[in-house]
Amino acid sequence: MKFEFSLDKKPDYGFITVTIPAGKTIKVEASAMASMDSNITMKTKMKGGLGRLLTGESLFLNEFTAERAPGEICLAPASPGDVDHLYLENQTVYMQNSAFVASAMEIETATKWQGLTKGFFSGEKLFLIKCSGTGDLWFNSYGGIFSIDVDGDYVVDTGHIVAFTEGLEYRVSKVGGYKSLFLSGEGFVCRFSGTGKVWIQTRKVAPLVSWVWPFRPQKSN
Q: pTM value?
């Protein structure tokens, strides 16, 4: 089944509203629930074990069930950015560690080891979130989200990747030489090949941190 939902306040502070049919359940990232009808009940379950801990995600997912009648739940992701939706049909997508917001119970979420070369040297996390199955999937970004249809080769800065479909091969490399790596302001890129889709966020966190750093409060001597 497909859930009824709306995506509001896009693209700056995306907000997700889902109608849960009576007796049905969705799973939601910890702390994402903003409000809900009083007939919706919540259970907290540990998911993913050490894998989720290493991604930087919470070890827990909350399951929200509409008791006796349909209920509406509103979800507010942690990052100030966009939200989007996919309906997977026996498909798999891989997401950056902070992108998952919620899904139908039929969607299996797991962690995928990127390997030291793809993870450590990219400057990003060593794990991705693997979402597979059939059902609704909601995710978020820092900044706006747009998608690119890849048929062949395509290059994306690692900090701008939100998600990509299974079947795309990828490798991480420098965008230029070592001089460019340290002086150009550009870092590592992900070189995709094959046929599929990549979701990209219009901002990345590292430049924001660099921009804010000079304005941080400092203790006087």
A: 0.83
pLDDT < 50 regions, the chain: 52, 55, 116-124, 178-185
C-alpha 95/C-alpha 86 separation (Å) is 12
Q: In this structure, are residues 141 and 100 in contact, taking their beta carbons and an 8 Å threshold?
A: no
Cβ burial, residue 170 (10 Å; 0-12/13-18/19+):
buried
Q: Which structural domains are found in the chain, ordered by start?
A: 4-210 (3.60.160.10)
Beta-sheet strands, E only, within the chain: 4-8, 15-20, 25-29, 33-36, 40-46, 60-66, 71-75, 83-95, 100-104, 108-113, 127-140, 145-157, 161-165, 169-174, 188-201
C-alpha dihedral over 81, 87, 90, 93, to 10 degrees? -10
What tokens were used for 83? 């939200």
What backbone torsions phi and psi does residue 208 show, to the nearest 5 degrees? -65, -45
Q: What is the pLDDT of residues 125-147, one digit of tens each?
A: 556 889 999 999 999 999 999 99
pLDDT value at position 182? Answer: 42
